[in-house]
Design goal:
It is a single chain. It contains ten helices and ten strands. The strands form three sheets. It has a four-stranded parallel β-sheet, with helices on both faces. A four-stranded parallel β-sheet has the order 7-6-9-10, sandwiched between helices.
């Protein structure tokens, strides 16, 4: 009996000690959480998440609600909307990229929440004359009159980075110098990308200056570096090519085009059909929008992956 009593006492003491440890650790954790609470940044898709993360470092919590989805198709859940309402700042691309963006912006502004819409602070190109050649499900997606794919231009990406840093300074001024320093580091990398693109894609180094491309996402690249592109789908991956446009694209293949820059999305089947009928080579390209980058890379790696793809598609040495 004494042995059983001793065991019982040991068990009771052990249980009391466990509860005591949990209690004090719990108090400590709650205290540390309240003391280390950081501003919360919510980005609508990967490129903005990447920019924000690089600028913020460990001074902010950055959330990507897009979570690997195509921003043309993604719609936030109720939980996502609640997260955005509670955020210190919400980053949107704008120009129709997020079909839900304008409605959310109006809601947040009524609550005096801070929303930064990238497209409102950049000089955008209007959609080209081919826009009418696509069939779009208007109930599922309505894009604007300008090209929203500014993150694919290192020049416009740099502008975006510097602007986001200024927004961060407003909500967290005590870390202003850190945001400025981190933003400049990223800006310098983007300057180098721009220089590398210019050097690699100079017309004198490339055998052709035209290519087909999955959808009209690379217009800023084409204009800056002198590359002509014929998109299969429109400004959105939800825009489907008309029969007339498909016939035109097949004719383009007979006039010096050697490749189709092909994305991993719903447009790929059109690219594969055209390639099969024309003999064009499929060259992978990435809009970087989902954050799924080849070989597990990040935004910068993706930009250089695309540069190699452009070199192949345009026969650049």
């Amino acid at each position: 009996m004494k042995k059983i009593a001793s065991i019982s006492v040991i068990v009771i003491i052990t249980v009391v000690l466990i509860f005591a440890v949990v209690y004090f650790v719990g108090k400590k954790d709650k205290s540390s959480i309240s003391q280390s609470k950081k501003p919360v940044v919510v980005a609508s898709f990967y490129p903005l998440y990447y920019f924000a993360s690089q600028i913020a470092g460990d001074k902010m919590e950055v959330i990507n609600i897009g979570r690997g989805n195509d921003p043309h198709e993604f719609k936030p859940s109720t939980k996502d909307v609640v997260t955005m309402h509670k955020a210190s700042i919400v980053l949107l691309q704008g120009a129709g990229l997020e079909s839900w963006g304008e409605d959310l912006e109006r809601q947040l502004e009524k609550e005096d929440a801070l929303v930064f819409v990238v497209a409102k602070h950049l000089k955008l190109f209007k959609l080209d004359e081919y826009a009418h050649e696509y069939e779009s499900d208007k109930e599922s997606h309505q894009h604007g009159s300008h090209d929203p794919h500014t993150w694919l231009s290192p020049v416009l990406a740099k502008e975006t980075v510097l602007q986001i840093a200024k927004e961060f300074e407003k909500i967290n001024p005590q870390n202003k110098e850190i945001y400025q320093k981190n933003a400049q580091i990223l800006a310098d990398k983007l300057d180098k990308i721009d220089k590398d693109y210019k050097n690699a894609l100079a017309n004198k180094k490339c055998s052709v200056n035209e290519a087909l491309v999955s959808h009209n996402a690379f217009g800023y690249i084409g204009r800056r570096y002198g590359l002509k592109m014929h998109p299969i789908a429109g400004i959105s991956t939800l825009d489907k090519p008309s029969a007339k446009l498909l016939a035109q694209l097949k004719n383009e293949a007979k006039e010096g085009v050697i490749a189709i820059l092909t994305e991993e999305n719903s447009v790929k089947e059109y690219a594969e059909t055209i390639a099969k009928e024309t003999g064009l080579v499929l060259v992978p390209i990435n809009t970087l929008a989902t954050g799924v980058i080849q070989n597990g890379g990040d935004y910068i790696d993706g930009m250089y992956f695309n540069l190699e793809s452009f070199k192949k598609a345009y026969g650049c040495k």
